[in-house]
Amino acid sequence: MTETTDAKVLSHPLTLTPTQKRFILHWGEMGSKWGVNRTVAQIHALLMVSKDPLNAEQITDTLAVARSNVSTSIRELQGWGIVEVIHRLGDRRDYFHTMQDVWQMFRIVAAKRKQREIDPTADLLRELVETPDLKETDPYTHQRLNNLLTFIQTMTRWYQQVERLSPKAISNMAKLGAKLGSMFERRTTKR
Amino acid sequence: MTETTDAKVLSHPLTLTPTQKRFILHWGEMGSKWGVNRTVAQIHALLMVSKDPLNAEQITDTLAVARSNVSTSIRELQGWGIVEVIHRLGDRRDYFHTMQDVWQMFRIVAAKRKQREIDPTADLLRELVETPDLKETDPYTHQRLNNLLTFIQTMTRWYQQVERLSPKAISNMAKLGAKLGSMFERRTTKR
DNA sequence: CATATATTTCAGTTTGTTCAGAAATTAATG
DNA sequence: CATTAATTTCTGAACAAACTGAAATATATG
Fold this sequence. Notes:
The structure is a homodimer.
Chain A: H1 4-9, H2 18-34, H3 38-49, E1 54-55, H4 56-63, H5 67-80, E2 83-88, E3 91-98, H6 102-129, H7 134-137, H8 139-163, H9 167-190
Antiparallel strand pairs in A: 1-3, 2-3
Helix pairs in contact in A: 2-3, 3-5, 4-5, 6-8
Chain A binds a DNA duplex through residues 37-39, 55-57, 65-69, 71-72, 75, 92-94.
């Protein structure tokens, strides 16, 4: 019950520029649209614009959320594999930072989302399409499910090719996209 | 208060095969992972495996959800542009059906999601990156935001190319992906 | 090993979402 | 234009998720 307890509350508040604030708030709002909770997204944004790694207390003070909330949120970001811990000599606290490479980050998140949001459906569809006699007894449903499965498999295969490319390669593909597109389009119409 | 009121409750229940049931239930569960509510996803699944268009009452009875819930959910599906109304001579009820072409459905949904989940961020980033003096006063943040923006723009441009392709063209790209990928990879390392 | 510091877990509260049923609205029919 | 059928909107209850503050646990240091 000493007066020092209060002094600790805002021991390491970070000063954010207006630009940084707007980015963090926006990223937090978009989080909900992406299925990520606001605090998690805000912390991620903060780490993205922060030059140096931050400890949990700094994050707490800067974003004005509960310490426990920061703990849980960081855990989730680590679960996604986009936030890492750093330690400093003479400091026992955990310092967090996020990867610099946006393409790398995208790849990691895309892989996780595919695993959670696509793979289970692909598995079930495979099973259902192979249901004995389905093709005969209910050809319509069989056809519909099979179309869906084929589509998912095609997209998956295609994603796996793209996933391996370097950022530079992706950028080049985007630039050459128009040509490529028409190339493939022609190739198929010929058939 | 006549006895006819009760008879109406289950007037047009649809008979679903076990396969159809499993698909509908699974699609409903996955819905939450995709940010779509369960009933909306279930109705969508039901329409996908239903050969004929269904009216609201049939959907209500088959899925055992409230009539009002069906109304709201169908509205949302129409909002996504993947469910349409059909009318029949001598029947004033609305009949609903979903498009057959999976690739077409994907395109529509992808476009909507891009619009909701990507475009606002791209807009903000463009604005922030152009903040006067940011490059000088806070080069680190500027760099980070700019990287993000560039990435989003690249992916967007690339998506726009792909979006125009036919299903067949996509499938071909997936098959040729490996070759293409290494082609681009080589091209960039040379630079 | 006692103390200080850092982190995680937990219970309770707040906030947001889903859903069924009632009420209101819209459209059709004689 | 009154009646019936079809559909949408509104409302409150049940449920689920996010968040906080406090307590419990873990870790370092003299």
